[in-house]
Design brief:
The protein contains four helices and twelve strands. The strands form two sheets. Strands 1, 2, 3, 4, 5, 6, 9, 10, 11 and 12 form a ten-stranded mixed sheet that branches. Strands 7-8 form a two-stranded antiparallel ribbon. 13% of the residues lie in helices and 29% in strands. The protein starts with 15 loop residues before the first strand and ends in a 32-residue tail after the last strand. The radius of gyration is 18 Å and the shape is globular. It has a single domain, classed as Pseudouridine synthase (2-Layer Sandwich), CATH 3.30.2350.10. By secondary structure, the chain is an alpha+beta fold. Keywords: Isomerase, rRNA processing, tRNA processing.
Amino acid sequence: MAMLSYTPPTSPWIETQFEDQDIIVVNKPSGLLSVPGRAPEHYDSMWGRLVERYPEIQVVHRLDMSTSGLMLLAKNKQAERSLKKQFQYRLTHKVYYARVWGTPSEAQGLIDLPLICDWPNRPRQMVCYEHGKPSQTYYEVVKSEQQTSIVRLFPITGRSHQLRVHLMALGHPIVGDEFYATPEALAYSERLELHAAELTFYHPSNNQLTAMFVDCDFYPQATCVAVDHFQPPLALPDYRTLPKQ
């Protein structure tokens, strides 16, 4: 599916949450690509803005264009290798907030549905029990509203569009979701109300467990939660146990 129009927000140009000699953590706005698209008019992106200031900047993970929140980038090759390995072995943990249509019947639970690309309708993804890759998301309802609710999300795996498809499959699509929302849920918000609020990783310079948090614009009450807040508890493996390169 081609992008009909691309008008990313420009203010603030870059919202930095943390920076040192090895990494930079930014708050990517909804509507901005993580990396440049194929067409020249889709060059503007979080990486494209940062590379003007940091020529060696490297992307180690991505957020969907419509998703806002924390994005971690490496400022040198050593940091890039360390962080990419952590994402590869699922040593990084993320916490998202979403406003969904309706309220799940269970206040918390595990969504365990295999996902695969819906090739005729890409970039859409779909549930497929025969060929899909294992995909798990913990969710927790934190606020019930008149037509919607706020859920806190902890993705165990990191499949494309995982949170969006899992919540749609649960019967509660994220409002403003141009791919998976019902007409009512799509019309409810001008943006996809999905925000990456928290990111936990091992700092590449000293292997210290590091947690970052950024406020959620559509749910200001969001707070930083510990990884073991979720049930069952999910502990980060020791960084030193990673396979050697």
